[in-house]
Amino acid sequence: MKTTIKREDILIPLQQVIGAVERRQTLPILGNVLLRSTGGDLSLTATDLEIEMVASVIADDGEDFQTTIPARKLLDICKALPEGSSINFNIDENRVSLTSARSRFTLASLPAKDFPGLDEIEAQQSFSIPQDQFKSLFEKTSFAMAQQDVRYYLNGILMELTAGMVRLVATDGHRLALSEVELETGAEQDKQLIIPRKAVLELARLLDTSDSPVKCILSQNHLRVETGALLFTTKLIDGKFPDYQRVIPVDGNKTMEVERDTLKQSLSRISILSNEKYRGIRLSLSDGNLAIQANNPDQEEAEEELPVDYSEEDMEIGFNVTYLIDVLNVLNSDKVQVKLKDANSSAIISDSEDTSSLYVVMPMRL
Length: 366
What we know:
- With 366 residues, this protein is an alpha+beta fold.
- It folds into 3 domains: 2-114, Roll (DNA Polymerase III, Chain A, domain 2), CATH 3.10.150; 125-246, DNA Polymerase III, subunit A, domain 2 (DNA Polymerase III, Chain A, domain 2, Roll); 249-361, Roll (DNA Polymerase III, Chain A, domain 2), CATH 3.10.150.10.
- 17% of the residues lie in helices and 42% in strands.
- The protein has helices spanning 7-17, 71-80, 131-141, 197-206, 260-270, 321-330, and strands at residues 2-6, 32-38, 41-47, 51-58, 65-70, 86-91, 95-100, 103-108, 125-130, 156-162, 165-171, 175-182, 191-196, 213-218, 222-227, 230-235, 254-259, 280-286, 289-295, 301-307, 315-320, 335-340, 347-351, 357-361.
- The strands form 4 sheets. It has an 8-stranded antiparallel β-sheet. An 8-stranded antiparallel β-sheet has the order 13-10-11-12-24-23-22-17. Strands 1-6-7-8 form a 4-stranded antiparallel β-sheet.
- Helix 1 runs antiparallel to helix 2 and helix 3 packs across helix 4 (197-206).
């Protein structure tokens, strides 16, 4: 069985699906990509049993076939071949030969019938959203996800749907990120689902900044995202996300406004001498002024002052500087607004003008 395909035509879908291929896996076939040719259409499928990606490409007319070959080796070969070249695939029972000009590679294959697939999903709900908006929602919240928390439901992002809104929420127990977009979803009742961390990072990588629509299909246990020639499916985390509304302070009576870039640069400088483990800094607010201080176990100190829009009573509060910088990295505005109550209460950080995203950061005792 033979087929021919241009290098660039297979390289792009390979790069899209490679994120589902774990470098270390218990089943050898999970290190392979499933190639399936039907009527001149070639599909590439990769999975780790939690997420599955299927990319399609038009190949030159050839025989129908299906086989699996090592995904990363195929990707490395395609990258190494010269631009504009064509690759001939010759599929035998347990070998696949790749020929391009004077280059020839023979890869071991495993039977396509042994390649695992995710369960068929029964669509309960679907909606479309522009790619750039969907990508922005993930980028503005994903940094606050937990990584390996025993509270497994925190190792992902909450997606909340209402009839006119899509909202993403992430928290690791020390900070919270929320971003939402107004969208007609057609949802007859509010729905919550938790997308696993790996799926979140892959979606943020795969989505582009165009306004072309992507279709999201929800089932009881899966989320499927269809974008152009790519089909992305992930299992959902089975758990109950905490009531995030309860941790968003509503009684912050002190408001500070400050230039975002100025604050970010100051925090970056002061953080150099913060405690490497706890990353704590102290903010001292007075009329029109913010003093930022840090010290470490070596008795080293750093301090910087900057002008701010603040006219409330003087106060001091401590934060993990990394958490503050992470928020400033995803905000796009010239000015940010910080709402505070006292030294023991969480702060709300947001864009001074755009209310679609907000960030909650717990204080530290210094």
